[in-house]
Structure formats: structure tokens, C-alpha cells
User: Fold these one by one.
Assistant:
Number 1:
Amino acid sequence: MKKTTITLLNAMLAAVFLFGCTKDKGNYNYKELNIPTITADLEKVDRNVFITADSIDLNQNDSLKVKLKVSQAMGTASDFDYQWLVIQYVASNPNPSSYIIGNAPELITKVIIPPNLYRLVVKLTDKITGVAHFKHFALNVSAAPWGNEGWVVLQDQAIDGTADISVITTRDGSLKGKVYDNVYSLFNHHKLPKGTYKVNIINHATATRAQKVSFFYPNGGLEVRNTDFADSAKAESWFFVAPNAMNFQLNGSAGGSSSGWEYLINNNQISYRQVSATSLKIPPIYFNPPFLGSFTLSPFVINSANSDSYFTLYDKNSRCFFLYRIETSAFVPILPDVPNQHFLKYTGSPADLHPTTGSGFDLNNMKHDLIYAENAQPMTSSNGYWNCFFKNDNRDSTFLVQFQRSTAYTNNFKTGRYFLKEANCPGINSATLFAVPTFLPLPGGAFYYVNKNTIYTCNVKNLATSTAKAGLTFPVGTVIKVMKTFNSGYAAVNIPSTEGRVLMVATDETASGGGNTVYFFKLNSTGDIMGSPSNPADQYTGFEKITDVVFKKGLGR
């Protein structure tokens, strides 16, 4: 029996071997995988938009048309279902809120997503097999010409008292720009509210490509899209709980830190929100309730790009500074909120505080009203200098206090206070506007101020020896509406060579038969104003009544 079993097993192994060696006759039906080759049909697209077959470049709100060529071994283009998507180009950026933009073989759409670099993806799904195939295009969306770099000019409208904006597409007047008028109403089909008095540009950390444009008007405010000025959000929706009264005074951000703190002063109280790469992915981003204390704030925030969560603020009632750190919601140093005691006691000598022979100052007791504050170095500078202008109650004495912004103050300033005597600085006690260049050696330097139809240049010197001279004189009756030095907001690597070296002036010259004009003047190496109203570096006319002007930088720089 055992022998029979072994014989049978050997026979079976021989049969398996025999069949295994038999040649495959090929009696099988194979089906090749249907892999299409997908390209753009460059004969059916705008070659001004398609830079290459795989790269698209256009402006926001432009129309985009993409027709495909689908080459395949079997079937035709109609054998597929289509889906067109726009997604982020890099993982750190958020996807657009609406990223599915089409489901037909040919894409015809209007590109309304914010300017950035994206991927345009078309997904083809085989209707029989269900297999999906993808084609990627690089999609660069730029701002409209009036939504990129330039000066935003806010104006009252003569007909109905509403407001609108023009944009001058120049940086510093060195190259002639184009003027786009009424760009807000052209896009939104209505004007800005009556009495709109301020336009703000808030630049957040460069890598976020985030920029906010806001307007203030009586009892309210409005945010618009930074690339085309389309309505975005009214002030009621800026907060977790809207304030009872809206009297907006200041909206800004240091802009350089990835922390991304933005501040808003309303009714002499400060609120803030964090606009960072993380928070941008989970909108909406609300302002916190106002920070309340013993103080009533002047509408100025002294900050720096390298640590934008530290705010040096001024209590106009008790006439003292205090330092507040947003991240910890605490005073620096950590002291009780007692007026005139937010810093340690002044450690200089009484002689340093003498009103005429000393030049020191006590952060706890400044004695006068803060009427203006501006950075005296580019905002890319680490804890740069600020100029703070004060006037006494009688408005017959004006002081400049200049100090380096910090994240902690020892309160021992022995220098930095300058008495601006009317005899040496004509019209300083009735000055209406101030502006500060950001390229001169500090402490000291220079500043500009307006009295009636004249702009003066003041050279800062110790104690009461500062002197001023007329730099520009406009026709009698001219109202100088706005005066600013060119502070771009660009990151240090992209900062222009003309940063702080150009003076922008907006005027109302209707009393002398002129119009409403925006001028640009160059500043020389010592801070003197070059040219004259009849011979400026650059000039733009034809505006309605100008109420505010602000520079808007390009995104991502």
C-alpha cells in the first residue's frame, strides 16, 4: 500500500512539471489602461495669460478661459467627467474659501480669489473605469493695477457729501504714476459713507501676504478687500461684541512680527486681535473687548516691528506713559494700575527734569498733552526712535520728546526733551501737522511742521536751541490737508532706497484759483526739502476735496 501511494505521488508531480513546461499559447484578453495626455490647447487660450503651457498669470477679477487637449489611446474627451479646482501652492497657505470653480470640459470663469500663487487643477474621471487623472497649472493671481502699490487718496464728493478714493500708482514720485479715480464706487456701485475721514493700511507679517484696508466715518467703520477695494466687513462684525459707541481713532500694526498683532483705538480705548499664518486659516478673526483701566488713551501707539505685542501708550488724563504687553495681558513692569505709577520711580536727578536747563523726562509724569507721535526710524529698525510732540494747556509752549522704544523702561531719561521756542521755530505753537524723516542720525535729526500755507523744516538741537526755516510756501489761502514722509512698510530686504526721503503733501488751493493737488518732494541728505510748489519732484491734480492720503505697499514684500 505504501509503495502504491508513492507511485501515485510521483505521477502527480510529473504531471505538474509537464504542464508547467508547456508553452503559454496566449489565449488571454488584455485591456490597456486608458491614460490620457492632458495639455492646454494654446490655440484656444489667451497667450497674454498663458505664459507657458503650464503657467498662468493674470490679475484678480480677470476672466480665465482654459480649453484642453486630451490625447488617448481609446475614447474621446467626452468619456470623462471634469472638475476644476484652485488650491494652495504651498502647504503653509490656506485654500481659497471656494476652490471648486468648474465642472465642464472647458473652464470659463472670473478669477475673484485674493492675489497669491495657486495651483489650478483639473481632474478627469473616466466614466467607465472610474479612474481619475489630474493636470496641474501654476496660477499666479496679481492685484488690479489700482489694488497693488500706490497712494490711496480719500476725498469728499462735492455733489452729495459722500466719499470715494483715487489711487496714484507711484511709489515715491520718482516715476510718473497713473491715477485711477473713484475706484471704490466703480467696484461697489455706491460711495463711501458721508463724513468718511480716515483711510488706514495695515500690513501684517510679509509671509502671510495679509493686508487690511479700513475706513473710518462717524459712528462706524468699514473694511474693504485690499486688492480691489470691494466691501468686506462693516465695523459691527469686527468684534465678538460690538461696542456701544464707535468713535474710531487709529487702526494699525507694527507689521514685521509673525505674532501679527493688530490694534484699534475706539473712544480712547484699545482693542487688538492676532492676525497670523495660523489665525488666517480659521476666520473670522475678531477684536478682543477693549483693555480697560484707569487710563484714557491718546490715539497713538508706539511700537516696533521686532516685538509688535509691546505697546507704549499714553494716558491723556493723567499725562503719563505706560507699557502693555498683549501676549500676557499685563503691564511692564508688572505693577498695579495706578495713574502716574506704571513705571518705577524716576531715578535721574531733579536737575535733569528742570523745565529750562534740563532735558530729561519722567515717563510717569509728562505734564503736557501728547498731540502727535511718529517713528523717527524705519519700522524695520529694532526698537527704533520715536518723536512725540507735546503742548501745554495754554498752547503757548511746544516740546519734542524723543526716545528709543523698548520692551522695558528703566525710567531714567536724562536727555531727549527739547523745548521748541516760537522765536526760533516760527508758528510752532499753532502748527497743525507734523511729519518725520527716517534717515537722519539720532537722537536729534529733523522734522517738518505746517503753519497756515507754509511747511517748515526744524533741525533738532539741545534744550531750546532747535531752529526752523521755511521749506515750502504755497499760495496764500492754501490749506495743507495732509503731510507725510514716505514710509513704505516693506520688509528690510525690500525697503526702497527712498524710504523716509520723500515728502508727500496734499493741498486745497481753491482759494487761490487752484485745485486739490498731491505733491512729492525729495529730501536731501540733511533733511532739507528740495524744489518748490511750482517745481516739485512729482505732482497730481484733478482731485476733489482731499481728507486723507496713505501709502499702500505691494503684497508679499
Number 2:
Amino acid sequence: MTALGGVEMGALAARTRALAVLRVRSRALAVALLPAAAAVILLVGGSTGHLVGGGWDVLRWVVSVLALLVLLAAAGVALVVARAEPAMTPTVTVPEESAPELYRMVRDLADRLDVPAPSAIALTPDCDSWLEDRTHPLHGPPPVDRDDDGLPGLGDPARRRSAVAAPVLVIGSPFLWWMRVGELRAVLAPVVAGTGPSAHPDIAAARRFIRGLDAAVAVASAGRRDPLSRAACAGLGWVSRLLLRSCRRHATEMERGVAAAAAERAQAVDYGLRIVAQEQVGLAYAGWDRLLTRVALPAWRMGRWPSRLDVGVVAALTELSRRDRLAEGFASRLGERPACDLLEEPGVVDEAVSLLAARLFHGGPAETRPDWSPVGWEDYPEEVVDRSWRTDAARLHRVLDTLGVRRTGAGTAPGTDGPTLARVLDHLTTPDPDPASALAPPTVTDADADPAPGTHSASGTTPTGAQAPHADHATPHPAYADHDAPANDSDDLAGPVARRGAPDASGDVQAPHGDHAAPHPPYGDHAAPPPPRADHHGTPADDEDDDDLAGTTARGAALAAGLSAQLAREEARERPVGAGLPSSPPGPGAGTGPDAALWDDRALPLLPLQPPRTGREILTAHITAMVCCAAMDTVGAAPGLDWLDGPALLLDGARTADLAPSVLSLVETGDPGPLRAWMTELGIRPEKPVRLV
């Protein structure tokens, strides 16, 4: 779009749409006042002797009562819209004294763009950057006089630009650690340019109205117990949704105009560098996602949270650059000054962001405690990888005890009853006595569900399948009792926190809602929150679980069902690791600003990383853990950390070949041949007992 008289066309379009939103508000007010106006006319007509008679008297009373009820309802809705707290993204505030150079860079960028500087800077554990308005209407600045007949634009004097408090600049923490200073400035240019439209009184008023309606819908959706409150919430929700539907198209076009105006204004600042920097944005997305899902998630499940996630993303992206021939030039950038140097204490900020990431993506507690402690990268292999493998292997043998599987496997020395890999292999490869049982694994009775360690089931036969036991009564073997059950994920309650903007061909971030100044989900989404999904380790839906285990053997299906049930029970004991705790600043270095509270702890994790694991995946992971334990205890293998793939098994300092196909062959077909060949090649002895936690 081209400029008209120094004003971007996008800004003019945004203001036009903002006025349309405000007209919806005015019409709603007019509708609320219409019965009152009719009552005034009837009352005045009666007092002047024009509208007299019994019929007019009845009509006067009816209309007056109706007008009073409508005014009370409208006042209640307006009060809720004005006072309801809008949704706010959880972030870590960066005070100016802890990052003076970063603030100086952002203000210099705002001066070059001729827009107001952001009021504050905050970090989010995500690969995105946006503007967020955190000024509650009750604490907004006083109104200023302005000429409604003119067309004030983004380049007006500072008096007009400062009529509305500038929003907060939220920066993705991976950008600070991976990008260089110049690249970060180029990427932030179109974001900072959005403070200009945010300062326009009409656009700011329209956004406040939209956020208030969205917050009112959230209040109405919360519901109440007593009938009167439920009726009031139903009415509030209906009115708020109706107004949101009326404003939705205008609000969307307004945000598009704001984004277009910001992108156009930012073209004059570091345009060429911004195109190059967008390549780093895409790389950061890939590395950050792999770091969270492959590296951080296993630690969170063990009750540990990596305290240097942003340092880890640099290592992961460097490794990705080394492996990918298309990214060979990226590693040479590491000689330039990283953007995290703009922080006075990057380590403290990284720790705070890492704790917040664990809270958002996993649902962990808001502070360190005995069952939720930080872990450094140097301790990750021993504290997370080794412990998680041995914990999973212990759970596998405990479920085998529950199923009544004998402890001695083929080739095991007499008198040996310790946990061995041979026991697992023999159980999964023993032919099924009844092939038809694979279609529907039989249930386990109370007498068979929890046999004593080292004994068979009450019937004297080894069961071929089982449903989830009713209770966890099994007494684990002392040698491998799982005393340190990991803290598993809490319920997956999907809830969008921040919309992501996708870079266009020119390198500008074009988001569906412009500069992200409005932190709420798409308008009206609070009215119908997504249903909670099954937890990461919990039992999935019956039909999905049956489909997943349909191709496995009967014993594999029974073992998977037992492991899923055991994980569900452990999670029930541990859950919720973070729910019910009061909101508090995310960690050291967090400010005391508005992001220290005002977000709901009951809906954690807000951004779940992965869907629930299926029974097949759970069984595969446990068998893999048992194989790794056998390798560590018999051939001297060691746990390791791969920055892109997570836990790794190291032999003589080198990563072993992938054993996933061999394990899948055992799980799906009951064929141990590929896995035995893999172990024979490395010298792993499955008949030797292994050490478990």
C-alpha cells in the first residue's frame, strides 16, 4: 500500500474499521436506551394530558418496567465488559535496569520508525514476537482533545501518539540467544512499528471494546452454581457473543490494516537484513521445537526442568547447522555478537524463561521444590536419561509381575530372579495359546491382578492379556522398586496463548490480527473452549487404543494395557504438579509487572507439546529403555544427550545405531530376531540382571 499525505493506506483502512467497531458499540447502547426513550415519551404524554386513559396507563407501566430491566441488564453487561480482566500472555518481564542496551536499541528503532517506543519489554518461551496491550481500561490514560473531522495518521505529533499508553513488546527468548544483534533489530522492526497504530485513539478504543467483550465471554463461560447466577451468566454470554459476531469482520480487517501499515513503515529500516534474518527465524522454529519435544519433555516427565533452555537451543541449532549442508553458513554467524549480550544477566533470565516454558508446555509448578528441581546440561545424561530408562524398565518388570510372568528367562542362571531383558523377550515371543485372543484380550480377575512377586496367577497359567488392573496393589521387587516415579504430564487443556505471525515473501511478519497487540484468542473463543484431551501417559480413547494395538500380539497388547494403566495411576498420584498453586512470578529475574499474575493456573499446560502416547508407543519406549539398561550394565554403554534427538545410547563415546526398527519388530510381530542380532553385534547379554531404580 502507498502512503497518502504521510499516512499509510493501511492506517486509514484500520481507522475506518475501528470506527465501524465503535459504531457497533454505539448501536448496542442505542438499543439499550430505546425502551427508556419510549417510557419517557409515554410519561411525558401522560403528564401533559395527551396520552390518557386506562390503556395508556397500563402501557406506561409495562414499558417503564421493561425499560428499567433493560437498563439494569445493560449496566450489568457494561460493568462486566469494563472491569473483566482481558486475557494476558504469561511472560517474563525484563526491567530496564537489567537490559539497558536492549531498551536503548528498541527506542532507537522506534525513533527511526517515528512511532512511540514500547512501554516495556518481556520475554516469552516461544519463537514469536508481538505487541501486547496490558493497560486495563480502569487504569487507562485520561482522554485528550482531538479533531474528529480530520484524518490523523501515524506521523502525528507526539501529543497525539501518547494519547494511549504504548503496548508491551514481547520477544521470543530463542531469538535473543540465537540471533545476532543486527538480525534481532531487523526482525523487531515491523513489530515495533505497530506501536503507531496502537496509539491511535480510535483503534485503541476499538481494541479495548473487543478485549472487554472477549473477557466478558470468558466470565460468562465460567458459570455459577445457583440458578440466578447461571441465568445472569447465560444472558451475559449471549449479549457478548452477539456483539463479538457483529464486530468480528471489522476487527479482523482493522488488524490487517494495522499489520499492513506497520510492515510498510518498517520497510525503510534494515529491509535487506530483515530478509536474511527471516531465515534464522525459520531455523529457530525448527531447533526450538526439537529441543522442547526431544530434550526438555523427557526431563519434565522426570520432575526435572532444564535451567538453560535458550543455551540449549543454540547448541541444537549449531548441531543442525553442522548436519545440514544447506545451513553450512549459519555456524559462521556465531562469531558475531549475540543478542543475549544486550542483557546484563542472561543466565538469570534464561533460568526464568526455562521455568516458565516448563509451566506452559508441561504444567509444572511455578517454583522449585524437592520433586521439581532444575538440571544443568552437564548433568542431563545421568540425572534424566539414565534415571528415565531405569524407571521405565522398573515399571515394565512391575507390570510383568502383575501379569504373573515368571522371572527367569531362557538362558538365565539357576536361582537368578533379578530383572533381565531375557524375561521380556521370552514373554513377548512365546506363541499365543489362542490366536483369536489377539482380537480381545481377556480381563484379569481380582485374584489374578496382583500376584505376589515371583508367583504365577491363581489359575496356574500365564495370562495372555489383561485390562487395566483395578488398583495398584502389586508389591514391587525390592531390587527394582520404582521409588522415584516421574512427575508425568497433567491434563492437556489446549488453550492458545499467543498467535504466531508467519513471515511473508518480503520478510515482514504478517499476522491475522496485525501486531498482536490484543492478546486474547480469536474473538469469542472463550465461549467454547476445546474439550480436554487425554493426558500424555494416560489411556487414550477405547476405539483409538483398540486400533493402535490391533496389529500387535495378544501378549504385547496386554503388556501395553498394563503399562498404560500403571502410568495413569502414577499420574493420578502426581497430578497436578502445578495446579492449585497461586500464580507467582515465573522465576528469578521476573518482574513485578502485570505478567506476574492474571493467568489461570487451572488450565495447565496451556501449550501441550505432544498428543497422548498410544499403547504401542508406550510399550515401545519401555522395551527400548530396558534394552538400553542392559547395554549400560553388560557392555559399559553410557547415557548421552543428542541436541536434536534427545536421549541417546553411547558406546565407546559414539552413538549406537538406531534400534527402533528392531524393537518395533518385537512389539508388532513378536519376532525377536532383529533385536537379538543387534544385541549380539554389540555384545549385550540379555540374561544378565540389570540395575533398576
Number 3:
Amino acid sequence: MKHIALIALGRDTSYCCREQLHRLLDNRINISNYYVEGNLPQRIKADFAIFTSRLAYQKAHTHLSQGVPYLISRRSINYHEVDKLFELPAGTNVLLVNDCLQSANDTISLLQTLGIDHLNYYAFAPGMDDPKVAKVAVTPGESRFVPSAIEKIVDIKTRLIDITSLGEMLSRMRILDHYADFLSAQYVRDIIQLIDKNQRYKNRAAQLEQELSRVESSRSHQSPDVNLQAVYHFDDVLGSAPSLLSAIRIAKRFADSDSTVLIQAQSGTGKELMAQSIHNASGRANGPFVAVNFAAITESLLDSELFGYVEGAFTGASRHGASGLFERANHGTIFLDEIGDAPLSFQVKLLRVLQEREIRRVGSAVPIHIDVRIIAATNQDLKELVRQGKFREDLYYRLSVLPLTLPPLAERKEDIPVLVSTFLQSFFLDMGVRETRAWMEGILPILLQYSWPGNIRELQNVVEYLANVCDGNPRPEDLPPNFSAAIASVRNRQGKQTVGGETLKTVVMRELAIAARIGQHLGRRSLARNLEVPESQIRHVCQELVTEGEIVLKPGRGGIQLKRSWSEILSADEDALQ
């Protein structure tokens, strides 16, 4: 059996090219792979050697036994991965990262030869300083060399040995006749796969065009005020925390104005609820309320969605054209949610709308005047985005005429009980206020301790979760796993709470010992009543005492049973007091 030695500069290249040779030659030829970075033996013996690059040859050829024929291969781009590059906008600066500068430059040349020249490539290799000209890196399987400051990595996988080098290798080993059909079939298969992939993309594009045409046709026949009504009012904003009442008071003042409002708040705090409330308290309450979420609309559809289009503006456009969301909001309010996600290219157009109060449909040069009140919202720090060059400073000041900040739930935890009660009653319509209080008693300390990164929306999800998984009133153990830290914190604090200067745990043990001395059995409810503390605290202390091996909880009327004698407990208690 013939033996081929494959020698590469790096480990990944070595293994990828060996796999390529195995697919071509099957197991009829023995293939050993080596790489300069780690596993080069002192002497490499083989019937033929193939180096994956000139640099690999320069660094490793002295390890090759004398007389072994060799080839320095040419390498080709992995054609199945290059479509990733077409997703990058034209003119984007990218670092082309490889294990050495020569390989990086070779890869750039190959990409440009293939016509993938819409990007600005900068060669980069280990040992070089990051030129800091790009936020995107393109690499053929060498992600470990990408500078840490890069924000996005596009891996087009390791370059493989090209077909001409494979043919030359087989010819020089005098086995080309045997493997020519396999070699040809391999590349024909690759071509067929690429054709199939391209056809699937074309079919998908045609489907999307048809779908867009149906949607636009349907939208153009809808009544202009369908789904354009605001349903929330200030009375729907639940809570009495001072920070919330202050925000509501300011928002009501804003409702009397027609100036642009910018709501800045974390996700889940009720930005759209507040926007609808401002609209319904304004002079535009009888007009439409149109909500736009920039995080949900692709950049390619923004112009047509917001400004509309005329017949023939693009492939798949409705025959009659269509109005945009700005037009549909005429004489009302448009709510621009997640404005921080608006692309820079669109921000310029939005600034023009704010300045001129005019829009132009896609494909038309005719301006259309609009009378629209704008409320924008974001969960991002727009000033920081301005500093990073991701948001236009002039647009920021146009939007931030009337700034409004909504407090996160972590800053208004006193509102949690009323929010829980409201959410709970939406699942159990016949549940009264007293029943909701009893329902949340066992978990309320945990809810008040938790940090609520998802704000009111997360609280609503938790209530819905518990309403589905609990048959009765929920216990701390029923909460989702992310509440474990809050549960531990509350239990630690409750275990250290004092009654008359003593820890609650000490007092509970004494009460149980005194009861045992006269032949009584106390339960948690009796302890809570005797000590005048909430039953939830007694429950937590008892759970800790069970864990510590001090008590056993008996079902039914068995109550709580001590594992030590009552005399031992009272004796130790007296010694501690002396």
C-alpha cells in the first residue's frame, strides 16, 4: 500500500486536507498528516509528500527523507462557504485572517479572482498589530488568530487542495488512471451541489416575492384604520411607586403637546402601553395609532413599509402601489419602537421626515405631506450609540424633544403585589383579592428579593408559569430555576431574623421543646400564631431545621417532632442564657 505524507503549517489545515484526501482515495492509500506547529517527526518517510503551502515547505522540508518526491500544492476556496460573504454590505472593511501573511494574501487573491471583490480586504496574521480598520473578520478556518476587538467573524472554512494539484499528485504517483474517475466525480458532485443550492435560493426568492405581493395586495384593500387603534389609557398603568407616578405625571403633560417624545426604558417596562396612553390623552385620540418595531423589519423592507411605494417600484410590488405606515398614521400618532435598531442608512431618511413632515413613496419623486405626532422608544443608550457612530447625533436631538424615562421593576418593587394580583385574576377570573394575597404569600419575599431583568413582562410570565404548574398556592421550590439565588438569600435572611433579641430558629426550637415537655405537638400554623410571625417565615425555618437534622415534619396532625430530647434543648438554652 502506497504511503502519502501530508505536511501543513497548522493543525486544522493538516486535518482538513487529510480528510479531503481520504474522501478521494478511500482507504487504499495510507495517509499520514503532519503540521509544523506540533507533530513533526525528525524524519518523514513516505512514497510521496504533499506540502499545503510554500511556507510549510520552507519550514518542514528538511524533515523529509532524502529522495522522497514531493509537491507544493495549490489551494482553493471552499465554494460551499463563500455565500456567507455576499451577506456583507458592499464596501465593508474586513480583516482577512490566516495563519501566515502569505496565506492571507493568497486567500484575498483567490476571492478577488472569483469575483468576490465587493469587500475591502486587509491581510492579517499572527504577530501583526490589529490595524483597527474593521469590525468584521473573514477567515478560512483560523478563527483563533482573530483579534479580540473584532465584533463579527465570518468563517469560510479551511482552503482545500485544488483539483490541479490533486491531479498532478496522482500522475506523479502513477495512479492517475485508477483515480481519475473518482477525482472527476468528486468535483462534478460539488458543482451539482452548488447548482442545486443556487436553484433553491432562486425558488425561495420567488416564493418571497409572491408572498410579498399577496401581503401588499391584501394590505392595499384593507380599511385604513384596521388595527390602528390604541387600547391603553393611563388608568391601565398599574402601580403606585413614586418613580412610576412621577413618570405618569410627566407623560400626561406631554399628552397636551404635539412635540416628539422619546421614551427610554428597559425591555418589558411598558413603553408601548405608555405611548398608547399619551396618544389617548392627546388631541389626536380619535386619529390612528400606528406601531412600528425596527427590530422586526428587515432593512430592505423599511422604505416600502414606512413610506409606501408606487406601481412597478420593485419586483413583486402591488399593481396599485401601497401607502406606508407614515401615511396611515396621518392625523394620529406613529410609535417608533426600538429606534436604536434603525440602520444608519434609514436614519438619514427619518431625519428628513422629522424636519420636513413629508415622505416620498419608493419609486416616486412626489412629496406627500403628513400630519403625524411621533413617539419613539428604545431600550438602548442612544448617547452611547451616538458616541460609537451607530446613531446620528442630529437625529437623536430631533427625537429627544420630550424625553421620558420609565422605571424598571427593580426600582418599584412595592408594585409587585398589585401586578401579581392583576395577572393572576386574568387566569382565574373568579379569584378575589383575599385569595390572590393568600396565593402569593409563600413566594412574595422571593419576588421582592429578585432583580427582575425582564421587568413586568418577566413577572407576567412567572405568574402564568406558576398558574399552570401549581395545583394550590405556590412554594418557593415551584419558581423557575433562575430564582435559586433569591430563594437562598431570603432563607438566609429569614433564618437570622430575631424575636425578642433571639434568632427565630432558636425561639422555634424552644417553643417545640416546651410543647414536647407537656406532651403537645405544634404545627407550623400554631408556631406562627404563638410567635406572631408570618407562617411563610416559620415554613422556611422549619425547612432549615429539617436539613440540619433537628426536626421531622409529620403529616396530618403529627405536627413537628424533635429529634433531640426536649430536656437537652431546654438545658442548652438555659446554659446559653447564663
Number 4:
Amino acid sequence: MSEISAGNRAGAGAEDGAGDAEYDVAVIGYGPTGVTAANLLGAAGLRVVVLERDAEIFSRARAVSTDEEVIRIWQRTGLDDRLKRDMLADRPLDFVDARGRAFLSAHPTPRGHGHPPQMFLYQPALEQVLRDGVDRYPNVEVWLRHECLRLRQSVDGSGVELTVVGTADDSVRRLRARYVIAADGGSSLTRAQLNVGYEGRTYEDRWVVIDTRILKPWPDHDRLRFRCDPARPAVDCPTPLGHHRWEFPILPGDDERYLTSDDAIHAMVSGYGIGRDQIEILRATVYSHHVRFAARFRVGRVFLAGDAAHAMPPWIGQGMAAGVRDVANLCWKLDAVLRGELPESVLDSYEAERKPHVKEVTRRAVFVGRIITERRLAVTRVRDSVLPHLNRIPGLGGWLQDSNWIPVAHYADGFQARPRTKASGTSRTRASRTTAPGHQIPQPWVTGPDGTRVRLDDVLAGRWLLLHGPLPTSQPAWERCGVPSLTVLPAGSRPAEGAVVDCDGVLRAWMTRHRAATLALRPDAYVYAAAPAGAQLPPPPAGFTPAPRATTPTTAQGAS
């Protein structure tokens, strides 16, 4: 990729000193969070510029796994199947004691998003596929080796002026964007310019992260092990494309420089039976664990996302995933505001929805980390002996073994219809008894009107939509807005226009469980409003005026 690449070179004027270039959205940072945003915004047809200070993809594999919900987000970009070709799915994980005996084994179970529940990945390869995906969009410019030195928001609130320096030639350019997504990492210069606090803690232990290439496989090389040895805990992690990772803490008295040397690394992994002839050490890096949250995720027209907004320990593999969820939540809202479909106030729901979920995910990551890194001998003896017994308790054992430690996102205080109440008192109407609003619906396989078996989101197509049970109730307020409808037919039904057949009964069961016969879905498949059988939905959002959309490509050129 060239330093400035795009099919439509809208930024050439600024490059030549001819004036400020104008964009809908500027994305600062081109890691997993920024590149996901670029794909989502590019598919929406918005004019986007991406600023990235580095010339190439960062070579070190930081994230090593992701989950089905994140793959579902990448499905919106049309890149999910290509990405999964480079991933490992359905690998079990073990917590093992100092002798290598498993005291807890987990087997991730699906949550209904339509993809494997856990996928191991090699981050540089993943980012390359996502960047190839951005190349589909002539409306997205990518400026590599460019850094944003200054942000200035317009006094009238109409946009943001960015002063950008080219790190290769020290050139200075100006551009304007109506909104900015800052995905420039934990040391975010943007967050610092906005004077937003980044509060939390940094753990004392530093860790050596070792990326290797497998030369000769060993038994169970593709199994994740948390080695909970109080003498020196370790993470022993499979990664695809012939790679493998280890992580070891730097203990008091260790020489940090020596611990990253080949001799030290081979000495540490030899304890697990790995010989020098079985791996090639690619790189070893030292890092610290952080728990931090930005005081605000939004300042005017600038939004913090990914590590710029929050940082968590790596124990449940959710650092990268949290950033991808951030921009999935934000990008459709920016698109709706820029097209005039929704008022700008909807953007306030970004932090209201994302921050509570990120905090809960972080809390669980810290909890799992305590299990792994506990070094007090008395505590580890209790852990190693008690957890196997807890595994055998009905209910609790299943929860531990299913590895469903990642909380499901439920946007209780976000962008959704508020329950109605009767004018005569505080008792609620029938429409308020449903529990669906704020939840994302599952994504089962369905049969479309043409008889093709597809994943549900491919039919929903990222738009506002009414989803009905088999006996639809007319919803005039929504129909007047032009919101289309789909009827969910039971398994075994014949395909029909305006309907999908719920092949495995997953969606109908979900609607029944939430006491909902009609759903008003947001473009991200979260429920804005719901009603039981025969009831009217709450009205559409204030100022809601859906706009027609142009079709955009969904298959990465050359990505196959």
C-alpha cells in the first residue's frame, strides 16, 4: 500500500497546498479498531480519511483470539469467511497446576452469533485482510506515515480541523472532518490533546511475550494452557499459520534483558518439553498489564475507541474485541446522523452503551488473571484442589466449563424505546412487559425468500427493520417511516416473499423467551423496541427519517 492510497484522491488538494480537504469522518489509527471502522464507514459510502503514523502493519502479534460476536461484526464487512480461513476454531483450554495437571478445563459454547465461539488468530495476517478490505472503497483514503498533531473543533460545532504531519518528509497538511474517531492506542495523542483523563492502574508484574514459528509440532501444540505455577505462571497459546506464543512474568531479581534472549526463552519452554529444534523464535517483547478507562469517550465531535478509550489485561482475549465492538456501535450511528436519519443526540448513546460493558468485561478479565497468576502457595493449593470438585456441581460446573466468562452486551441505558405507562397510573402496558429492548438478537441460519440458506444478518442487511412472529401485527407509525418488515416463519415452512424461515427454531425461541412478537431492530441487530402479540410498538425515535442507501461492495478484491 502506498503512503496515501485511495481510489478517490479527495485529499490531493491539501497535499498540494490548495486548501483543506473535507471528509465525513477522519479515523486516527489503523490497527484492528481503526481498520474495522474504515471498512464499516467505507461500506456506508461515507467519505473517510485514515491517518496512521507507521508505514507497515505492526509485526508483533498482540491479540491472539477473538469471539463469535466480533466475527459477526466483521461479517458486516463481507470479510468473515476470509478471516476465518486464517484462524483456529474450537480449541479447548486448560488451567493446569505446577505439575501440569488440569484443575479446570473449558470448552467454549456458542452464544448464537452464527460463528465459532472462540477463534485463535495471528494478528498481522488478520490486519492485512482487513486492510485489503478497505481497498475496495474509493471513498476511503489511507494516509500511512501521517500523524495528527493538532485537533481544533469549530466554534459553531460543524466539524474538526486536523493538522497532519507526514513523518517521511515533515510535510504539514490540513484537513477537515465532520467527526473524528480516535483509535490511536493506549498512549493516544488525541486523548491527551482533548485533556481527557485515563484513570486506572498498571500492574507491577511485567511480562515477556514470545512469538515463535513451529518447526516440529509437539503433542497438544494447538491447545491453550494457562500454566498456574506459583513459581512462574505462564500462558501457552496456539496461534494459526504455524505460530505459537508463550508469555512469562518477569519476577523479582530477573534480568529483563536476559529474559528476552533466545537462551533464556529456550530454557523456560524446555520445562514443557519443547526443544530448540522445534521452534524458531521470531520476537520477544516486554509489556505491562493495565486497567484504565478514559473519563469520557466523547468530546464534541471526537470519539475515543479501542485502547484510546480503555485498556484491560489479556486473560480472556477481549482487548482487541472491545475496540471492534466500540466502532461497530459508533459507525452506524455516525452514518445515520450524517445522512440526516437521526439527530446528533443519538451519538451520546455511544458511551452510555459501551462503557458499562467494557467495565464488566475488564472486571472478569482481572478475575481470571487472579486465578492464573496467584503465587501464594496456600491459596494455590486450595485452588488446585477445590476447583475440580466445583466442576462436578450441576450448574456451577457447567458454567465454569462452558467458558462463558465474557458478559453478553445488554444496553440497558442506551438508545432504545422507553417503556410506556398508562396515563391513569404507574402500571405498565402490555408493550412494556417484553424484555427484548437493549439486547442483540441471535443470528441463526435462515431460509430467505428465494430458498437460499443464509445467516440472518445477511438478510437484515444492516438496516432498520421490523421483525414479526408468524401472525404480524400492523405497526402504522413505523410503516409510515418506510421501515421494511420481515416475518419469521417456523422451521419446515415454505419460503415466502417478505419472510425468512427460522431453520432451527432459534430466533422464534428467543422471541418467545423475551415475550416479544414484534421487534424493531437497529442496524446493528440490537432491539430498539418490542411488543407482545397484538400490541403496538413504541413509536420510532424522535426525528427518525430513514434515507435511501446506495449499494456498496461486500467482497474484498484480491482477498480470496
